[in-house]
Input
Amino acid sequence: MADIDGIWNFGDAAGSEAAFKAALAQAPAAEHEHRLELRTQVARAMGLQDRFDEGHAELDAVAAEVREEETRARMRLLLERGRLYNSAKRRDEARAQFLQAWDLGREAKLDRLAVDAAHMLGIVELKEPDLALQWSLKALDYAEQSEQQGAKKWLGSLYNNIGWTYFDKKDYDKALELFEKALRFRETQDDLKSTLIARWTVARGLRALGRSEEALQMLEQLQTAYAEAGLEPSGYLYEELGENLLALGKDGHREHFARAHAMLSTQAWLVESEPERIARLERLAAGEAPAEP
Output
């Protein structure tokens, strides 16, 4: 599983597809189950490129070869079939695949993949927020209770995602509690970028609770950490710096809003989904009186 996880670059689906095909070409024929697992990931990469028919065809070929005792391959077959259906907005079919995977994963004690199934059920049920949250909490509980390190690697993502669910419900105390858990988890991992993002998330939770002084201090330390690591801060960091300075009535916010606008206005998906947010950054950078964020 570590080999498979290490091959993925979710920012480059086409590159990941090529990498899995290369790994498949090198995998010995005797490693039958591993080869099938690699092929399920080829199908997943195809789905991320909206090539759903090709992805299903690849999974059909895997299904024709998988043996009953090859439980990991069967689990991945269910998960990737479900992901293809979900990406194509065929929610009922996706749900059925993930439910089978959830049951099989627990039965076979493949905890990491079982958590993945519960996590995906939370995504499938996004139109029913309470049900989605129930599945996310099931995934979290299973990961926390598991003795398998593979399952525990899910904790950072689950704490973060569930935290944002509570944030969207305006339960900011609960959101911050989970954001802080996510940060503590990230700090135990060798993943600097994820840790920096987790620190930003905690600061966002603090601002939501009106604790802008604490948030600003954390963000200024975070800005220093980015510089020391030789990394460029994101527009989201500059946005938060500006918002907290503005909330505290301190100078310097216009510069941060200008940098945030310059960076975030290039993200097409954000401009499309939150046009008022982008427009607000532009107004604040120009020194206009703020409206509520």
Observations:
- The chain is about 75% helix and 0% strand.
- The radius of gyration is 22 Å.
- Residues 89 and 124 are 9 Å apart (CA to CA).
